[in-house]
Design brief:
Number of strands: 5
Structural class: alpha+beta
Number of helices: 11
Radius of gyration: 32 Å
Distance between the termini: 47 Å
Oligomer: single chain
Helix content: 55-70%
Order of helices and strands: HHHHHHHHHEHEEHEE
Shape: elongated
Largest sheet: 5 strands, mixed
Length: 381
Amino acid sequence: MRARLRTVLAEPAVADPPRRVWRDWALVAVVVVAAIIETAVRQDVPNRPVALAFTLVAAVSILYRRTHPLATVLVAFAGVTAADLVLALLDREQIELYSMAFFLLLPYSLVRWGSGRHALIGLLVIDGAFLVDVFTHATLGDAIGGAIFLMFPAALGAIVRLEHTSRQRELDEVRFRERAQLARELHDTVAHHISAIAIQAQAGRAVAASEPTAAVDVLGTIEEEASRTLSEMRTMVSALRNDDDPELTPQLGVAAIERMAANSTARPQVTVELAGDLDDLRPSLDTGVYRLAQESITNAIRHARQASRVDVHINGLHHVIRLTVSDDGAPTGFDPESGSGYGLVGMAERAKLLGGTFEAGPRPGGGWTVSAVLPREAAAR
C-alpha cells in the first residue's frame, strides 16, 4: 500500500499541457451569462449578490484548469467552503447556483493534468468541502451523493490519463524501433566502409616500399572512404539501437523499388516513376527512401478501400530527394488506425532522423498521399 502511495505521489504533472483556446473563453462567457441570468430570474436564490460574485470569480479558474489544476481546485472548492462557513456563522443559506456545474471540470482536470501529489491534495480539499457541507447545511446522504458525483469526473480523468500514457509509451516504442532499425542499417554501411579502409591500408603498406606512387593512390582512397564513413557516423549519433550483434546484410535502395513494384501481384497495381538524379545517394538516404516507399505501398495495399492503383514518384533534385506515394481509393477509404496505427509514426520518425520532413493525409477527391522530402547531405550533428 505504501509503495503504491509513493508511486502515486511521485507521478509528475503532464508536460506541456494544452494552452488556452477560444473554447475556454467561450465556456467562461457561457458561465458568466448563465450566472447573471440565473440570479436575475430565479426567485429562490439565497444570498444573491454573494452567489453571483463568487461564481463569476470562480469561473475564471476554467482558463487555468489545465496549466494550474491544483490552484483552480483551491480557488473554487476552498473558496466556496470558506464562503459557506461564513454564511453558516451568519445563519444564512449556502451558495447554490446551477451555473456552478462547471465545478465538475475541475476534478477531471486535476487528475488528468496535475502531478500525483497535487491530485491527492486537491481531492482531499474536495472531500473536506463536502465534510464542511455536512456540518453546516446538507444531510450526510446528500453530501456522500455529491462527493460520489464529483469523484466520477476525477475517475474519468484518471482513465483518460492512463490511456494517453499507454498510447504515448507505445508511440515511443515505435520511434525507438525505427531508430534501432535505422541504426542497424547505418551500422552495416559504416562496417562496409571500415572494412574497405582496412583492406586498402593493408594494400598500401604492402606496396609502400616498392611503389610509393601506388601507396599515395591508396591513401587517397582511404581518405575518401574515411570521409564518407564520418558523414554516416554523424548521421548515426541520434539513432539508438539495442542489438549489439547485427547481421551484415546488403541494404536495399531506390533501385529496388521498381523491382518491388514489378514483383507485386497484389491489388491495387503499383507504378513507380523515377526522375532526376538518383545516383550515388549516401547509403542511409538510399535505404531510407526505399523503406519509406515500402511502408507507404504496404499501407495502401492493406488499407486503401476500392483503390485500383498506387503511384510512387521519386524525384532527385539538387539538394533533396522528394518521395510521393498516392492511391486512388475511396474518399473515406484509408483508415490509418485500422491497423496498429503506428506505421505513420515510424515513417515520420525515420524522415526526421534523416533530417527531412514527412506528411500524410487524404487528398482531394479521394485517396491518400504520403510525401517526404529528404536532404541529400547528412545534417551536421
